[in-house]
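Hi! If you just cloned this repository, the fastest way to understand the data is to look at a raw example. We've pasted two of them here, unedited. The first protein comes first, obviously.
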Amino acid sequence: MTPKERLNALAGAAFLMATSAVGPGFLTQTAVFTEQLLASFAFVILASIILDVGAQVNIWRIIAVAEKRGQDIANDVFPGLGYLVAFFVVLGGLAFNIGNLAGGGLGVNALFGFDPVTGAVMTSIICITIFLFRRANMAMDKVVRYLGALMILLTGYVMIVSQPPYQEAVLRTVAPLELDILAIITIVGGTVGGYITFAGGHRLLDAGITGKENLRYVTNTAVGGIITASVMRYLLFLAILGVVTAGSSLDPENPTASAFQIAAGEIGFRMFGLILWAAGITSVIGAAYTSVTFLASFHSSIDTFRNYWVIGFIVFSTSIFAVVGEPVTLLVLAGAFNGLILPLTLGSILLAAHNRKIVGSYNHPLWLTIFGFIIVVLTAYLGVRTLIISIPQLF
């Protein structure tokens, strides 16, 4: 691999993880918390970055030294555990992929006025076209990089015109007036929960960037992915903060769209449509690609014909959305289980980190292990809490 090819693969992995996190739910979640916590949400973002980095660096490093996918490592820790992990990751990936397609459809609707289902089908066709290329991984890397950069630039523009209180935001980043622990853990789950934390790690594995000799690149890329997603969140937070501190109320039906429209008028609304579409399509790519890497453990032919399986995953998700619409029950259930995926996957990775049969002569830093187990406990608590709250909503 040439230095240029390695750099492209590293950038692609970072942006694949980041854009997988920056989905339609990410946009709405950020708007809702900003309106609730105002400038103090800056502290939530900072705290979540620290926890996100702890989770992601642990997982990516062990994937690199074990040279195996997350579910295969889990199977080595405890036979059958990896299949359980794969089941939950794929279930969550499917459910949220339907939501991502819905977001893509709504983005097209905001841009051109097309029916959201038509917009979702158009989004799906573009994704399928990407995976029809012979070098689909390279095409995927470029698409997520360019669209990720586009989302950051457009959000940055809206942030400037909304004129947020920058000094207050900086102050509250370290001295919040209100501390919301559940908001922190919720943001962590939305950034590195479910399939998202494995998206870039599995991409590096496919690119052959593994082993102890590449740990520096792996660690830097893991941190880079979190920083990229967090830059997008902070810009979005500032853009919305400028609107709400000016006295405007957000539309509860679509808080982010209303914030962009209030800040920048009709142009802002169209920009929101483009950002929502870009968030939707990049998240569809990330969810489909990563979910199929988890399915690969069930049969070798899935890896052999991976691109066709990714296409099938996208087609299946689109069909459900087109026929049924957004399945609220499935999303509620998947969201509840998704909260339990991170502690399950991170916990198994941490157990593998000190197993010589899995990592060989590699010595995993003790502080990373301790930090990782703290994250496991915190996210497990939220996952159980979310499950208890969500299941009654299904009946």
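Ok, and the second one:
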Amino acid sequence: MRHLRRPFRIIRAHLRAYLVMNALIYALFLTGMGAALLFPDLNAAHLAAQQEDGTADLVVSLLSNVWLFSLTILAVNVLTVGVLTILLPSMIVPFLGIAFFLYRAFGFGVALAPLDETTALTLIPHSLTILIEFQAYALVMLAAYVLGRAWLRPGTVGAPNRRQGYLRGLRQVAWLSLPALVLFVVGAVYEAFEIIYLVPPLLAG
């Protein structure tokens, strides 16, 4: 139980930063939505890009298997976004992954802008997916922040030098990754069930 409380102690110790991460994510997401509502071509360009890179076809091909769809969503969220977009760049340049993800949050807003009735109705069940996954991303962003802070200011984690600060920061990244992973799993399962079972009846009605 002591180990299970460790991630939450880190969050409490950096609560202000965690709240800032949340505010930035939702601000950029809503800004992206607003931009797409003002300039619908942004949304059209995003959808066209998904068609060209095969994302749309991949989604359609997975709709017959909810668990495979969940696993694919989980892999994309954890590996493509969490690791490759946020954590890995931040391990090379402090805080860089945070900026990269905020750009993606803007893109999410552009993609999900309620430009028509279909998208607006889809957002009703999908809002829970957004909430869960954004909280997971906020935790990963917090991990990137904690790592960068420990790296640049090793004294804040009781380290004698930046090398030790970096290593201690990585340990905190590992702890914060645990609740983030739980949220990613819950979000992936819900999103797959939502898209396959909740959205179609809603649109049909």
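That's it. A detail worth noticing about the second one: Residues 162-204 form the longest helix (43 residues).
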